[in-house]
Amino acid sequence: MERPSRLKPAVVDPLDKVGFVSKGDKSLLDHTAQEGYFDAIKTQYHTLTGPPVTNNDGCENTLASALESLSLHQYAPGDRSGFKTNGPFLAVSTAATAPGLSTLLLAMRKLREAIVASARNDAFAKNVYIFIIRTTILLRHPESYHPAILHLFRRLQLASPLNDVEKKEFLGYWLLDLACRQQNLASAFRVRNFYRYRTEKVDMILSALIHGNWVIFGLAKRSADVYETSLMQCADDRMANHTMQCMGKSYLSLPKEYVERCTGLRWGELKEQKKLSWTLDGGTIVIRQMKKR
Questions:
Q1: Which of 36, 75, 238, 285 has its CA 20 to 30 A from that of 221?
Q2: Which residues contact 196 (CB under 8 A, 6 or more apart)?
Q3: 0.70 cut: is pTM over it?
Q4: How does DSSP assign 20-52, residue by residue?
Q5: Dihedral (C-alpha) 182, 194, 205, 168: value to the nearest 10 degrees?
Q6: CA–CA dist 229, 223 (Å, integer)
Q7: Which residues lie closer than 8 Å to 284 by C-beta, 6 or more apart?
């Protein structure tokens, strides 16, 4: 008689039970299976993030508690989106470092592959892509949100049209990704003109990037919601470098608080990351010493 095993059965995450369609797993090609898997993704998402917070537009913003242990960016825009931004703003550099988030990202990719392979373009597919785009923008994971945005506009919205609010929202994300992360302003303006997209905020951001206007860029960032701010952070380093070049050519000294506010970096971070020759004298940053005659 065979002895019963004394080992505990392995705990398998329900998101890991299925594989990628591209690697031969066909279990997610069934529409009912896709819907059940999406429910499992949302359950895992809310387990990681806690109860949802809804903004004024009815959009759920709930990734804060899952990301508190990740890298933080000190300066926050105004709280317009329902997200608590009292204190550091969340900026994720490597989402896979947080337990459970790497599994969630892989699960969303599996579901995207299955929807594309099954040629599904109904309202469910559109809602899945909307969820994935919003979540992975907060996770700073362009490998997920960039192809999802392209598929949303090139395929899904032809069969399941986006309403005016959704179209405006996701076109804005597309333009900010092109301009801030990809640094492709020509493509951003091409998409903007093709879809006849006009909003004052995005136009301000594009103009600021073209002219290197860090003042306008900062003003636009303060009025941005968490998704827009996450995308704009891709241009932060570029704008900070340009800001310091302008300061270095124009001033002998500046208040420390003003420099930190303009660059979005603390003095210690500026000194370490940018290898500056500037010095700190009390509350003043000395950029250049006057030559003695």
A1: 285
A2: none
A3: yes
A4: -GGGT--GGGSHHHHHHHHHHHHHHHHHHH-S-
A5: -110
A6: 9
A7: 253, 254, 255, 256
Q: Compute how many other C-beta atoms are within 10 angstroms of the C-beta atom of residue 131.
A: 18
Q: Which residue has the tokens 């951001």?
A: 205
pLDDT digits (tens, 9 = 90+) for 180-221: 999 999 999 999 999 999 999 999 999 999 999 988 998 999
Q: For residue 89, what are its two tokens? A: 């703003």
pLDDT digits over 238-281, tens only?
A: 998 888 888 888 889 999 998 888 888 888 888 888 888 898 88
